[in-house]
Design a protein that fits this description.
520 residues, Nucleotidyltransferase, domain 5, Helix Hairpins, Serum Albumin, Chain A, Domain 1, 3 domains, five-stranded mixed sheet, 24 helices, elongated
């Protein structure tokens, strides 16, 4: 009977076991009884060959090949050395039937995979430490743990250097710290303002204000306190002068102690915020270097946090990236059928801030398009350094300067790009006019035709003027009508006057007749 070889993969290396008693495999249900201890197990199988892995990377490549059902190079070399070149005709027992088919096809080794082989592998694993005499149990456990972690990262496509969850939590905490700092600082200013109200106008920074309160305490100590370590020298003398003529009220030591405790909180939170910002900057440069080069650390982190992860952000088109953060305005505009917003979170990028109000929409659209490409390079690429981000930023800066109306020399000086490189980005503003003198055969005719055309145009204009005259005539007719009406009215008035004169004459005649009669 031909004996069988059992291929067994471990975290420490590949092992080949030779089956000594084939009859045990026929009774699968009772096979575990033969592996109760190492001695009984060695009566069933014996170690034929073992090849340890040199490092975790080699172990991971071998394990991933077995998981994917592929014949890896280390396994192929191992089988070729210990089976093919050794001239063995034994049947190779494997757990994975797909892997057995590949081995048979590439190395011409007969393979078998059934339930009895699966049970035999379980039994070998139970007594593996005793069967592998050259490898210690501690080494096997450490290798197993390392391969398990590496294989888990491989299956999840996980990289410890690209954990965007840290960015999401950091930017959320940074925003909360800003709100908390603003609340605490305003409370401290209002509280200490009852004692020294003039100080709030002199010192604008919250950190400096709280540091001065902690150093000086009561305003009466302003003259004798050294404030050079916490305040600018140009503000120290005005502060001391204001403290001497301050209109604030006096406070007790207990009140001052509580104010100082609040100022300590502001100072400590401010220091932690600066440390958190440095941490966020380092994480963004490690996870999304190209996006950071384009829009900055804060805007890039807010874009990642808004979508949930860097992978989700890489799936978004440029038009969506442009209006991320302005969803309410977008839906309100669509509902009311008004103009949609031109930018969202990307509005706070430095490139958009440098643009004038009329160019903000254009530069935000171009920045979103370049950011979409940069995000995909960061999410799906293997490079940890910015590859396309700085080049995209130089291109956008040159385009922005061109839109703002700057010359090519200024663009080249500001961006560090030569005129030849910018030629593809921007076009020349010099327009070339057509030279009519180059048409040697038809030059005179063109000039004459030009004169004729100009004459025709003048004639047409004259005719247009003539066409405009009839309305004037109508207006004159209207005036004539008005004149005739006025003449008629004057005639009527003259007739009325003549009638009135005739009536007056008749009255005079009748009066004269009456007088004559009275005399008689």
């Amino acid at each position: 009977m031909v004996q069988s070889l059992v291929l067994f993969e471990t975290a420490a290396g590949f092992a080949l076991f030779k089956v000594l008693d084939e009859g045990k495999l026929s009774k699968v249900d009772d096979l575990y009884k033969s592996f109760k201890d190492v001695d009984t197990a060695k009566s069933v199988v014996s170690l034929h060959a073992f090849q340890p892995f040199q490092d975790i990377a080699l172990a991971l490549s071998a394990a991933t090949g077995i998981v994917d059902g592929e014949l890896s190079k280390p396994l192929k070399k191992f089988l070729k050395k210990n089976v093919v070149k050794a001239g063995l005709d034994d049947t190779l027992a494997v757990v994975d039937a797909k892997l057995g088919g590949i081995i048979k096809e590439s190395l011409s080794i007969p393979c078998v995979a059934d339930s009895s082989i699966f049970e035999l592998s379980r039994c070998i694993r139970s007594q593996l430490d005793g069967l592998l005499e050259d490898v210690s149990a501690k080494d096997v456990r450490s290798m197993r743990l390392g391969v398990a972690h590496s294989l888990g990262r491989y299956k999840l496509k996980f990289s410890p250097d690209k954990v965007d969850t840290m960015i999401i939590q950091a930017i959320a905490l940074l925003d909360e710290l800003d709100k908390e700092l603003n609340t605490y600082a305003m409370r401290a200013r209002e509280w200490y303002g009852w004692h020294f109200p003039e100080m709030s106008k002199l010192i604008a920074e919250h950190m400096e204000y709280c540091s001065v309160v902690l150093t000086m305490g009561n305003r009466a100590n302003a003259k004798d306190t050294d404030l050079t370590s916490v305040l600018d020298e140009s503000l120290i003398e005005p502060l001391r002068n204001a403290a001497q003529v301050s209109m604030g009220t006096e406070i007790s030591d207990h009140d001052l102690a509580n104010i100082k405790f609040l100022c300590e909180q502001v100072v400590s939170i401010t220091q932690y915020r600066s440390e958190l910002f440095e941490y966020l900057k380092n994480r963004m440069n490690a996870i999304a270097p190209n996006l950071t080069a384009l829009v900055g650390e804060l805007v890039g982190a807010r874009l990642i946090a808004h979508t949930g992860s860097l992978i989700n952000l890489s799936k978004q088109p440029a038009s969506t990236i442009q209006i991320l953060g302005a969803e309410k305005a977008l839906f309100r505009a669509l509902k009311t059928k008004h103009a949609t917003p031109k930018y969202g979170l990307i509005y706070h990028a430095s490139l958009v801030g440098q643009a004038s109000s009329k160019n903000k929409g254009k530069i935000s659209r171009m920045l979103a398009a370049k950011s979409a490409l940069a995000i995909r390079c960061d999410a799906l690429g293997d490079e940890d350094t910015p590859s396309v981000g700085p080049d995209y930023r130089v291109t956008l800066e040159a385009r922005l300067m061109q839109m703002e109306g700057r010359s090519m020399a200024e663009i080249a000086a500001a961006t560090g790009v030569s005129r030849s490189n910018n030629a593809a980005v921007s076009r020349s503003n010099n327009t070339v006019s057509y030279n009519a003198a180059t048409d040697s055969t038809l030059a005179d005719m063109d000039v004459e035709s030009g004169k004729d055309k100009s004459k025709k145009k003048r004639k047409l204009e004259d005719s247009d003027d003539d066409d405009d005259e009839p309305p004037r005539k109508k207006k004159d007719k209207g005036k004539d009508k008005d004149k005739s009406k006025s003449k008629d009215k004057s005639k009527d008035k003259s007739k009325d006057k003549s009638k009135d004169k005739g009536k007056d004459k008749d009255k005079k005649k009748s009066k004269s007749k009456d007088k004559k009669k009275s005399k008689k």
